[in-house]
Amino acid sequence: MPHIPLKYAPKLIFYGTRNYFTSKPLVISFEVTLSCNANCKHCDLGGRVKDEKRLSPDEIAKIYNRFKSPVIQISGGEPLLRKDLPEVISKIKHNRFFPYTILVTNGWLLNRERFLKLKEAGVNQFSISLDFPDERHDEFRVMKGLFERLNKVIPQLAKNSGGEIVLNTAITSLNVREIPKIVETAKRWGVCISFSVYTPLRTQDDSLSIKSEEDIAFLEDIFKKCKNREGIYDAVVNSSQNLDGLLKFIKNGEVPNCQSGKRFFVVRPEGYLNPCSLHRIDFTDQKEMIKKFTSKNKCGRCYVSIRSYVEVSFLKLLWENVSMRVLNSN
After folding, report:
1. Which of 19, 107, 217, 276 could tie 128 with a disulfide, CB 3.0–4.6 Å?
2. What are phi and psi of 267, to 5 degrees?
């Protein structure tokens, strides 16, 4: 992953500290479109949204500047369907590393030209989904030829990357045993990889949840290797605490005390604020969202990446998400 030069760290630390203690978000996820060119089995979105109302780049920047979260996520749907995406990102950016900007994509529309243009606009991390280490990825996302395209494009992009590309695998009952081969694929492509865990909240399909004791034991062994950075697992970027949290969620089916709406929230394409992408309750004001949703929220049935990284103690959050990058920078 990209290292944050020391000169950029103070601003990240300042706004991270301020937002933590004033109930402003540490991460905002901008869903710049709900249209998508895929129909993934684990997602409730898919297909094009006709006549979708979308905020302009200036309007998105205006919302961001109300909160100045140290990290933003650009997602969808498929964000690369927006031709003005570089402008959206450049309007938000205050400098190269503030806010730290993560683009979530299935990768179908990514090529060298777009990669470099988005990188220049201010994307710090390209999070590209990978569910299987072969053509089963196409079947899962209903996108024929997707794996072949990624297999060709990502190694090429990695040559022009400073570690910005991170694959993401949402672990399900279908791919849990494929994790070693998926990690091998990341190594072969020359990129890093992170893990998240499927939640049935999005599609109500509990069959994709990991339940068998054998699969859980298998995953525990894999995560142990990740923590020790054994062999190919040095490509995995999840922190030890994050891996422990994922296992806890798998075993218990929930993690209580969700802080969505407070520590993080979602901005819809038309500008409404949602506590998270799994609770489509529209708000126009964060304080109202905290009062009417977060303060009463009993849901713990997901442990998505944003939630898992912001619901830690302040000191650990500061250390894992800022200090480690600073210490490792040139």
Report:
1. 107
2. -105, 120
